[in-house]
Amino acid sequence: MESRKFAQGFLSRSLRSRRTADETLKLLQRNEAKFDKDIEEACTVEGILETEYNAASEVIKERAAKLRTLVDAYVEHMKVKLKINRERNLETLKQVKETARQRLKKLRSDIEKLTEVVKPDVTSGSLVNKVKVVEMVLQSIDVASAFNTNKLLVRTELNIRTQTLNDETVKQWIGDLNESEVQIIDILYPVKCVGQITSHEDTDINAMSVCESGELFVNFGASHTLTQLSKGKSHNVLNAGFPIDDLITTPDGKIICTSKDSFKIHCFSPKRKQPAKFDDTVLVKDSLHLHGLTLCNLSGVFAVCGTDKPNYSDEKSNETVIMEYTFTGKEVKRLMISGYTGKVYRMSQNINNEYILTFPKEGTILSVNTVGKIQFSFSNEDFIRVCAPSKTSSATRLHMEEQEVAFWPSGIACNAIGHVFVSDWLNKTVLMFDEKLSIIRTLGDRFFGPNALCYDKKNNALVVSDRKVIQLWKTT
Fold first, then answer.
1. Would you call 136 exposed, middle or buried from its count of C-beta atoms within 10 A (0-12, 13-18, 19+)?
2. 47-88 pLDDT, tens per residue?
């Protein structure tokens, strides 16, 4: 009996040990994979740094050469100026000396004459004659005239008064010398704000689209009007007659837009010199509520998402469909999203032809392929797990988990290399994802109410709308 218990105990310990060993092995293998990835990323960064070093060295050489050219030009300019002023001053002094010599010669002659006539001369004639001679000599002497030595001389100032070389010129070639720490993620996935457009309205930008020529069309606060921003100027180009919800611009300059919970898609052809209101064409009519417009990678085609319940209501959707249309309103394809129903707010198509959709009320982003199958997702729970920083208190995390959603994805855009950008209106930030919706980083430090996003292919920049300000970001 005891031997049997011993055998059972030994078997149990063996199984536990084997299980522990298996778990430990798996842990070690995961750690091995992680360290392999860390080494791979470090090697990637090493290569990037080496490339940057070589490129920066060439730029420094070029800037140094230009600075030498500027300095040499300044030195030559000042040498010529010094020489001209020196010759001018020498000529002035030569004239001064010559005038002084002539005056001195005249003075000496006058002194000699006057000395001669005032000598006591007992043999001279009458006193009357003596007086007349003195008066004649005095009349020949110009006692009142004085020698003017106040001649204007030129001093060469060595401070730089020309635009040949100044602080701004130097900065242009040297740049700011302030040093800052750079994280690995900034090297692997650089993002930089390269410009901004200041709007004149303190309200959310509901929808935004950039045309191929680079002009930006903006809808403020779901209003009836559409504003065009170009070269720092803005003007209203459209009064749709209904509150605009989303919009896109076609390559030939037409504007396609939807209204809140509408069954229609409208198409406008605004012209600069026409009145602010235009007769529109109803491009599409459907039985579903239409939201989230995007241009497709396939030329001449756009897509919209439809739900069987209004987005701006508390009714739960039972059907979520992606529909593709030509610019003339002909239906190309209809995709039922498999395994998920929700209220889409915005959508975009990535370079791999997958549709990326935002569901603010559910706190979810989905990537859907060309047959309607969900490929990747990022949820409210993922946001709490990944984006809540480690320093966040447990109470704060619990509060986030207790909220209906802690993550409110709204605007969306994809850049030229497949990165996905989503504005999080609730947390006032813009998130950057890869094609698999794995979060990479955030943009900038602080926004006030980011909403609409779009990608400007002409300038290769992400356009981010915030309250009062629209920013341009380089993301590659």
1. exposed
2. 888 888 888 888 778 877 877 777 787 788 888 888 888 888
User: Residue written as tokens 């590659």?
Assistant: 476
| Contact present, 272 and 325 (Cβ < 8 Å) | no
pLDDT tens figures, 158-199: 654 444 555 565 555 555 545 556 677 777 788 999 888 876
Enumerate domains of the chain plus CATH numbers: 2-174 (no CATH), 191-474 (2.120.10.30)
The total of other beta-carbon atoms located within 10 Å of residue 200's CB is 8
Q: Which residue has 């000699």 as its token pair?
A: 112
DSSP string computed for 355-388: EEEEEGGGTEEEEE-TTS-EEEEE-HHHHHHHHS
What is the C-alpha to C-alpha distance for residues 34 and 31, in angstroms, rounded to an integer? 5
What's the CA gap between 169 and 336, in Å, rounded?
A: 59
| Cβ neighbours of 206 (radius 10 Å) | 22
CA 362, distance to chain mean position in Å, is 31
Q: Which residue has the tokens 């998402």?
A: 305
3-state secondary structure of 10: helix
* SS3 label, residue 195: strand
Quick check: 292 and 304 in contact, CB under 8 A?
yes
Rounded to an integer, what distance in angstroms lies between the CA atom of residue 358 and that of residue 465? 17
Q: In this structure, are residues 424 and 345 in contact, taking their beta carbons and an 8 Å threshold? A: no
Count of positions (residues) in the chain: 476
